[in-house]
């Protein structure tokens, strides 16, 4: 005991030194273990299957970019824009307020289109004893004169003609021909006509129009016809199989309206 009392500091220092020596000897082993654990963890992470990144939906962004590159045209004209063109409201006969422009071409519709024909019909022979003439009915439904629209009977000899055709020749016996040959004035075509097979072709169209606000019907309108819509005067300048084109008489602005559709 006397020894411990006199040398306890040395004993404690020896124990500490011994512990440090053991720790120093164990440290390389622990470092190796930690290194191996880190290597194992790294390999585990590296070998884990990676989920591919999903494509980002950029369709809305692309749509916005397309709109920026091709912006819609800005119009300050009617119809549909009233900031600089305020609309005038009027009363209908029943007291209902109506926008004045709705009385015009904006509410005009094409409800029907019919073909107009040019016909040449062979009707037989008129023998006066001295002269043989051939009866042909000329129908021009596009003409302005009602008589031509209904049909005019012509008594003709070969070589005679009208503003539509010229009778060129007859086939067969003079008093009982099997066919007649006519030449169209417009394009020089030669057409053979018999009693059973008249000449017929589409020469134009007529249209029925309706103003939806007023419910007024404009029947049998043709190229050149004039109508008044909302105080504006219009002339029909073209009629196709599926549309009608009108021109404002004062401004010359044209509007095409498709069959059973609105003004374009």
Helices, strands, pairings?
Blueprint: H1 2-47, H2 59-69, E1 89-91, E2 97-99, E3 108-127, E4 132-140, H3 146-150, E5 152-156, E6 165-171, E7 179-184, E8 190-193, E9 199-211, E10 216-221, E11 226-229, E12 232-239, E13 243-248, E14 254-258
- According to CATH, what is the class of the largest domain? Mainly Beta
CATH topology of the largest domain: SH3 type barrels
Strand content: 35-45%
Head-to-tail CA distance between termini: 122 Å
Biggest beta sheet summary: 5 strands, antiparallel
User: Mean pLDDT across all residues, rounded?
Assistant: 84
Q: How many extended strands? A: 14
Count every helix, treating DSSP H or I runs of 4 or more residues as helices.
3
Task: Describe this structure as you would to a colleague.
- The protein is of the alpha+beta class.
- It has three domains: 43 residues; 75 residues, no CATH class; 91 residues, SH3 type barrels.
- It contains three helices and 14 strands.
- The strands form four sheets. A five-stranded antiparallel β-sheet has the order 5-4-3-9-10.
- The radius of gyration is 49 Å and the shape is elongated.
- The model has no long low-confidence stretch (mean pLDDT 84).
């Amino acid at each position: 005991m006397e020894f411990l009392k006199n040398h306890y500091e040395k004993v404690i220092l020896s124990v500490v030194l011994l512990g440090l020596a053991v720790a120093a000897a164990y440290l390389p082993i622990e470092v190796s273990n930690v290194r191996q654990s880190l290597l194992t963890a790294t390999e585990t992470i590296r070998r884990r299957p990676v989920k591919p990144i999903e494509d980002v939906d950029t369709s809305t962004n692309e749509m916005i970019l397309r709109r920026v590159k091709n912006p819609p045209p800005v119009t300050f004209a009617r119809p549909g824009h009233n900031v600089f063109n305020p609309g005038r409201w009027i009363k209908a006969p029943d007291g209902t307020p109506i926008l004045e422009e709705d009385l015009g071409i904006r509410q005009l519709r094409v409800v029907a289109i019919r073909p107009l024909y040019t016909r040449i019909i062979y009707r037989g022979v008129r023998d006066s004893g001295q002269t043989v003439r051939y009866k042909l009915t000329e129908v021009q439904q596009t003409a302005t004169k009602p008589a031509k629209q209904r049909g005019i009977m012509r008594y003709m000899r070969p070589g005679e003609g009208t503003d539509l055709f010229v009778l060129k020749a007859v086939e067969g016996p003079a008093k009982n021909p099997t066919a007649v040959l006519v030449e169209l004035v417009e394009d020089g075509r030669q057409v053979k006509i018999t009693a059973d097979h008249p000449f017929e072709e589409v020469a134009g169209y007529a249209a029925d129009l309706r103003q939806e606000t007023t419910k007024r019907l404009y029947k049998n309108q043709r190229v050149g016809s004039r109508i008044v819509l909302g105080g504006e005067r219009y002339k029909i300048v073209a009629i196709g199989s599926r549309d009608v084109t009108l021109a404002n008489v004062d401004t010359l602005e044209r509007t095409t309206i498709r069959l059973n559709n609105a003004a374009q």
